[in-house]
Structure prediction request, 655 residues.
Amino acid sequence: MSSHAKAAAQFIKNTERTAWHDQALFFVRQKRDNVAKNIDEWEVLRTKASQIKEHTVSNLEHYLTTFEKNAKANGIQVHWASDADEHNKIVAEIIENHKAKKLVKSKSMLTEECELNHFLEENGTEVVETDLGERIMQFLKLPPSHIVLPAIHVKRQEVAEIFNKEIHTDANNSDPAYLTQAARMHLREKFIEADISMTGVNFAVAEEGAFVVCTNEGNADMGTSFANVHIASMGIEKLVPNYESLGIFTRLLARSATGQPITTYTAHYKKPAKGKEIHIILVDNNRTEILKDKDHSNMLKCIRCGACMNTCPVYRRTGGYSYSYFIPGPLGINLSMLKEPKKHSGNVSACSLCYSCSNVCPAKIDLAEQIYKWRQDLDKYGEADPMKKMVVKGMKKVMGSPGLFYAAIKSGRLINHMPRFMVYNGLNDWGKGREMPVIALKTFNEMWKKGEVRSNESSKNK
Amino acid sequence: MNSREKILKKIKSFPIEKTPMPKFDVKAIASEDRIEAFKQSVKVVGGQAVMLKDYGTIDNLVTVLFPDVKRIATNLEGINCATENPDNFSMASMLNGVDVGIVEGHFGVVENGAVWVTQAMKHKALYFISEALIVILDADQLVETMHEAYKREEVYGDYEYGCFISGPSKTADIEQALVIGAHGAKAVTIVLT
Prediction:
């Protein structure tokens, strides 16, 4: 059994919650479908988005240096980090230079990747996540289970409970409007008191030396409105050449993510205000390695909308924590394999190869095709199931010999008449949690030979 | 070697086939009545768009739409109902508690109800901290899609901060239940002049 299947077994124990999780995410998927259907040029947009990213990634040196030059000319301070450690040290240094104590953060999967919060807290900085879902997860001391909807697996009663403990709301009031208002008041204070505001980056625009941060809550904008120092962290793949490219991406991002026509705030940071500072950290942390890998370099096109998770039948029914990497779903399966294949190879079995992720991806990343490729190499990573390996070896022998093949089919029919305990037991994975199909009494071959097979046309004529 | 050089050297060290930039020739459907379509889009994202002519003046509009408010902040001239000019505040935090903020937008986008604003005041907090935000917009300045939006000269202008604001602040982080008013304005009214 793969590590994903083992972890998922925990999640699916609570069937009611599994069904609720599945439906909540499928609802988001349907909202995406509805808005996508209303745009005739949707497929054109996806193709262009894919081409723009491909062009940018294939000219990455040019666009990185162009962005750096223009951002500096705008008064933005540009830093480069090879890995997570260096990124965290740069942030810590900026904090120290300003003798800062309080930091507010808007959502950033890159800082999750770098495990920044933990690092800063150990160094005595107060780190406050300001996205509502992220704040809930921070209170619960758990990582997000989805990249766009961090607390999608948490029930409202659990939010009421933790808010009661942390910010003294009424423990019996789990109304989302009430809880959101309480968080608004609580975080308003944090925004106003903050010394430093951190944000992620959705798009960095090379020709303009500007970067764009998208939120619905306005938490990134609130943060940067009060703190005098703004630190933005971005993976080097977040570049786009120009504003015209954003004409494509801003049409795709929110529609793919939540089914909205655009995020409430699409903020463009171009220059620091008088007396303020903007720092941007360009982070590699393995991205140049992905660039080298022809089979998987498409992963650098990702705009982190989460559509692949919302549509994935395995993610919806097993939740974010069943995956061994901090990013789950089809995106996480691929990124985790690019990071540490031996550690994360259990994730590649969390896929039914339905290819739905590839079909909804706004940047047309071949997510499922790549998962299929990883599976061909499972033996290399020590994850291949010995039982399945044996079965496949046996199958090869049987399929290679017609005599054995027909004998096997005949004996296979016996399963229909076997007592349940012989079919549904620990040895038969296919019989776990589901009924076995009834095996047909006659094979196609037998029917064909007896002339019992008729085409649709001839049966209609009769 | 510093990290900048290390990263750039690594990128240069392996051959990648350079692909061209695609053409920006996306054809989108145009609406028959831009103003009506824009109003509809603003409604979809949780805001409202009204015609100034239906109210006469901004002062009257504020009295009618927000009858019980105390603090009305703007640095725009000719708005008599304003109780304060935030440009006189030394700190952005002094804007905490503003009921209505009144600002100007450059142009609106029909497909998503967004309005492009660039910081035209001392504290950009006004855009977000106001309980209700009023954005004054010339009704002739509407574009159909984001493609046209990113061709407008105002987007390329000399600003520190620019933003497409589409309706009020919102979240659905608790059980996917939509709640208006996460951190930013709880109501956004676009006034078309």
Notes: Residues 32-192 of chain B form a domain with the Rossmann fold fold (CATH 3.40.50.10420).
